[in-house]
Automatic annotation (TrEMBL):
Stretches of the chain forming a coiled coil according to its record: none
One Gene Ontology molecular-function label: serine-type endopeptidase inhibitor activity
Record organism: Mythimna separata (Oriental armyworm)
Organism ancestry: Eukaryota, Metazoa, Ecdysozoa, Arthropoda, Hexapoda
Pfam families, A to Z: Serpin
Residue span(s) of domain Serpin: 40-196
UniProt similarity note: Belongs to the serpin family.
Cellular component terms (Gene Ontology): extracellular space
Keyword match Zinc-finger: no
Chain ranges passing through the membrane: none
Superkingdom of the source species: Eukaryota
Protein name in the entry: Serpin domain-containing protein
Amino acid sequence: MEIKLFTFTLVSLWTYGVLAYEYHCSKRSALLLLKRPAYEFSLRMLQKVSQETDSHFVYSPISTWLQLSALAEGADGRTFKEIWKVTKHHRNRCFKRQLGEILNKLSKDLKNECKRKSVIAMDKLMAVKKFYVRQIEKLYGIKALLLDFNEPEKSARKVNQVTKDGTDGLVDNIVYYDDFLSTVLLMSDANYFKKSIRDVLFVNKFRNEDVDDVDRGNVSTKIDIL
């Protein structure tokens, strides 16, 4: 019994040593642990979106992956397990800090090429802890808003204002009042590529057209279409 216990201890220590050696907490290790789950999630989401829209859609799945990972910070039990099945993100706190630094640097590097604002709006009746709000803003750069969903028009204005401020006025109307009906949580993400990078990626691929939004009462709006 003592020999078996000693052997088990040695194996456990050796395994821990190998894992610590291969995945010591660094930006390089954080990137390695980030790439695969983010890639697999993105692939599944893009396939689903492509099927639902007949491939007529431009979508950034990494933003959704980050938002779901941020939601997991405040989840537990069954809810956390369901989110983690989808994201497969690393749960070590040190790696989360490294990820936060990577995302902050990425945002700074891309500030001249694109504008992005990610928002998670939650009904304040859920009594979400302020610590959670601070954590997801610090780690993921996502703005968390505690709003009164019983006042949907006011809530929509606040989300739109935060988005407008975060994109220097480039995106100013991303949610509507009826998005806040019969729900307690809403995620939105606005990405705007400036003309310089749009020209590089999609030379002569855009055309500006009037599109009727059936869900909003056939309101006509101009959008760039690939």
